[in-house]
Specification:
Layout (H helix, E strand, L loop, with lengths): L1 E6 L3 H16 L3 E5 L9 E5 L2 H10 L6 E5 L9 E2 L3 H9 L14 E2 L2 E2 L6 E5 L7 E7 L2 E8 L1 E5 L7 H4 L1
Length: 167
């Protein structure tokens, strides 16, 4: 099994990365540290950081690879574990005793331009206040809804606690 490690560029994440690396070495796991996520070739990607880091990871990833988010403290929704719980999870990974939870992602086009797939939500609004927009919602290329207003938020189940909740 080959594992890739990607982290947020901050002191706490760097410290956690060192702990993760020492455990990977302890269990003789083949791993690489990644600064960029293009052309990654691994069985599992460990992402060390906050929710923003995990969301940015999904935006940058070009291929499907299982991601395990390792939180750096504080509140988070997307990180599965905290750093101090990594060793038991690593043991389970090495024994293939884990599951992969598939997450829905949204594709959006704005003025004909396709945006990167979104894990949380897509927010479409005018850059100028008080301007009405016309928009269409299609699911699997089927027109579901057409409307106009000052904006629209379309959320996945993952993102329902974010913009959609505050709206």
């Amino acid at each position: 099994m080959k594992i890739c490690v990607f982290r947020k560029e901050d002191r706490t994440s760097k410290k956690i990365q060192k702990r993760v690396e020492s455990l990977l070495k302890k269990y003789n796991v083949e791993y690489t540290i990644k600064n960029k996520l293009k052309n990654i070739n691994c069985d599992i990607l460990l992402v060390i950081g906050d929710d923003r880091t995990i969301l940015d990871t999904f935006l940058e990833l070009k291929k499907e690879v299982p991601v395990l988010g390792i939180g750096t403290g504080g509140s988070h929704f997307l990180a599965e574990i905290e750093a101090e719980n990594f060793e038991p999870y690593l043991k389970r990974i090495l024994k293939n005793k884990y599951w992969i939870e598939k997450r829905m992602r949204l594709k959006a086009k704005v003025n004909g331009k396709e945006l990167p797939p979104a894990l949380n939500e897509v927010v479409v609004s005018s850059s100028k206040p008080g301007v009405f927009l016309r928009y269409s919602l299609k699911i699997n290329d089927q027109l579901v809804w057409r409307d106009s207003g000052d904006g629209v938020i379309i959320s996945t189940p993952t993102g329902s606690t974010s913009y959609a909740m505050s709206a």
